[in-house]
Specification:
The chain is of the alpha/beta class and about 375 residues long. It folds into 2 domains: about 100 residues, acylaminoacyl peptidase (de novo design (two linked rop proteins), Up-down Bundle), CATH 1.20.1440.110; about 220 residues, 3-Layer(aba) Sandwich (Rossmann fold). About 45% of the residues lie in helices and about 15% in strands. The chain has 14 helices and 8 strands. α2 packs across α3. It is globular, with a radius of gyration of 20 Å.
Amino acid sequence: MNQTGQINQDLLLLQLRATTFGISYNDLLSANRAAIDWRSWSKAIAQFALRYEQLAEQAMVGGHPQSSAQWWQSATNYYHFAQMFMQGSQKIEYQTKSRQAYCQFTKLAPAAPQRIAIAYQAITLPGYIQVSHAGAPVVILLGGLEFAKEVELHQLGQPFLARGVSVVCFDTPGQGELSQIHATTADFELTMKAVLDFLYAQAYATPASPVGIFGICAGGFGGMRAAAIDKRIAACISVSGFADGGPFLNLSARNKEMIARMFGVDDDQAMAESAHYFPALPDLPQAVACPLLLVHGSADHLVPIEQIERLQAWAQGEIDTWILEGAEHICYSRFGDVLPVLGDWMAAQLGESPPVDKALFKS
């Protein structure tokens, strides 16, 4: 890609994230060669999305629903990454096309995700649930910045499903389908209470089918906050989560703008009030008491190791920590090693598999 200046680490991580979540390496190279800036890169990715959309339609007409489902999923992923560097109507168009493609995918996929609607104050939180089997425990998936329930969270749910754990994901206020409707709030535990109330009311969760939570980055922060306050959460995994809003002072300009948009404030206000939007977990009146697994990359440029040490000192229950040597923020480059173990750990905590070997966390 021809760009003036140095491509910063956030953009490099985004491309690593793209290949992790469904963008083929060859397509990524083609988009990089064709683009002169990030807007043209996005349009190149969108052209691939359109191609997969057309292939999905052709496959369905030809009587090949499995291929159609696969290509609809590709279109979902490509439109999602195409929207990231767009603004205004073009961004909304690509986001909408990604969700529409996922809707087509759910009509064809085996063990298809089921659309759910969760009542929360005066709005509805849209989401999906995939049920592993009757009476299965459930894990709630919480993503990082710009994660989509149809893309990253869908794929992150697969290791849990394969181990007998149902998965649920949803859009919080200020994200996904609600990004144009309702601003994000700091009291995330109220959102999680609505989700847990829904799971128990619909009998997806019962005393015999416990609920775990898995969060990445800001989702890890929110998941730990919810686990500390709502004792219905039986286990918690945080990948690159943090103890307070300090890491947000180090965000790139683009990500600062994103945070400001989510909370409905200007960039300067968002950063100045980061401690308000991400209040320190150790300041809560109670700590996480359920089993907690912290996963962190030693080369994380955003969340320093001191944040993990604060979380270790704060948690009161069983705590496991896995520091991945050389791994970056969110540890994308190690997902092949990490996700199976995280699936095993959560399944063990929720009663679906034997305990994992703690020696793994020293690798």
